[in-house]
């Protein structure tokens, strides 16, 4: 009987404590104080409940390890809290974002489907290449837009080796006279939809599909539907020999505009009460659709990292737009790192997330919680002592 009473009391204390502890969770709809179309407004660490000392330690760690990170931006609760430039790149210098480009291409595909110019992700890609005559074109007859989005097209492609090696299919494509024909004429390694295989050529096919479906260049379409409405300041984007904007890479952006793109997704595709891309597309694109490894998944040209509760637009040499809905946060890195020397998971978990968890409660809330905890512990100890005397 005594043990049962003690158990009930402990449960009461736990419930009492939990009522004073709050956690950062982003609701489906957030009323924003402003939209950063014309520029980001800044806030202090204290304003957004982050521990500044933890972020300071992150920059010390970056410096001590000589990581070639060019910029770090953190947007929390809609405000720019951190903006540091660590090399010759400054706020006004365009930075190559490499495969972050793919996440923009995916978003444009979502918009074309919403507009009805593309039927769905299940539409076959050969519907858009009826005038292309290449060897082995019949190998592409079952490949859909979905397969290109999720890197499961089955097209024979090797991009899992250094980009400095001539055997890399990406390098070979860029050296060819016609990139679209190069990709479409490749052999078949797997049946579509069965195996993930990273393929920037497939992303370039998506750009060609956008141009064929809309009658506009990919850049014009992106400018109309993303760059202008969201307020991008400056953009450069390279083209293939036929003038098609490269869907796999070569977009150049300012870090603040990268953060705007992440903020668009953080707000479920809405920008200043305008639905730029549907919430359904944001959900699908950022979902863990395809298993890549034990620690990463792949959606529609977005990487999903469950251990960080984040999804990422990710580019070679360390270009990252990281969307973290649980914390109402967007994190941007631009870098000039070696190909496989990326510390970002560690930086995010051990510093950025930690700074939020450490600083989430205000001083008043923290003192209230401490008071309740102290009183509860005293009461519990007193209870135990009295029971032992009986």
Word description of this protein:
With 390 residues, the protein is α+β, with helices and mostly antiparallel strands. The chain has three domains: 49 residues; 140 residues, DD-peptidase/beta-lactamase superfamily (Beta-lactamase, 3-Layer(aba) Sandwich), CATH 3.40.710.10; 160 residues, 3-Layer(aba) Sandwich (Beta-lactamase), CATH 3.40.710.10. It contains 13 helices and 13 strands. The strands form three sheets. Strands 2-1-13-12-11-10-9-8 form an eight-stranded antiparallel sheet. Helix 3 packs antiparallel against helix 12 and helix 4 packs across helix 9. The longest helix has 27 residues. It is globular. The chain starts with a helix and ends with a helix. The N terminus and C terminus are likely disordered.
Task: Provide a concise account of the structure shown.
The chain is α+β, with helices and mostly antiparallel strands and 390 residues long. It has helices at 2-18, 45-48, 52-64, 100-115, 145-149, 169-175, 179-184, 200-214, 218-230, 255-266, 279-285, 344-359, 363-389; strands at 69-76, 79-85, 95-96, 235-237, 251-253, 270-271, 274-275, 290-291, 297-298, 303-305, 310-315, 319-324, 329-335. Strands 2-1-13-12-11-10-9-8 form an eight-stranded antiparallel beta sheet.
Provide the descriptors you would attach to this structure in a database record.
390 residues, alpha+beta, Beta-lactamase, 8-stranded antiparallel β-sheet, 3-stranded antiparallel β-sheet, 41% helix, 14% strand, disordered N terminus, disordered C terminus
